[in-house]
Amino acid sequence: MAGDDGKCAVVEQRPEAEPEDGVPTRLGQAIMLHRAGDREEARNRLAALWQELGPRGDAFHRCALAHYLAGTQDDLRDALDWDLRALAAAEGFVTERPARARPAAAPAGGAPAGGAGPRHPLAALRAFFPALHLNLAADYAGLDRPADAHAQLRRARASVRALADGEHRRRLTAAILRLELRIEGAPGASR
Prior knowledge:
Protein name: Tetratricopeptide repeat protein
Strand content: under 5%
Radius of gyration: 16 Å
Structural class: mainly alpha
Region (Disordered): 1-23
């Protein structure tokens, strides 16, 4: 769901069976801490989980972790670094096309079209790309890098077109437009 700052968050869908490593549970606990206002503890737990996974950890988990770590940063440059890591992990995952499916986080808006239940992470990550690009655009806009922000908005717009029509797509499309208006300094655009 897009916030006033143009950033998007992903709502985790509960898998039927928890993976053995417990990463989704621990990620969810840290997210709940952040949403409850304990930004520092959430950041500490997410950073510890990031270190535990390491550079060869599951790319889907790394993408989700980096995405949420970006949201816990106090410095916009640090948020940008984490958002770039999230995008790199997602792009690497899509490129590698893993052989086995695992339960996945669903984009904001709940379950995938066609009913509840886990989805293959590849499909979830493809649905996640518009939010990743939107977050990067918001970072660049906040760092007064409008050319980079516009480039990410173009990528967000292109990837949102691949989503099925629905509430998630409409929210992302509206968030893209709001951020574009904010970057352009349009009257009435929230800052």
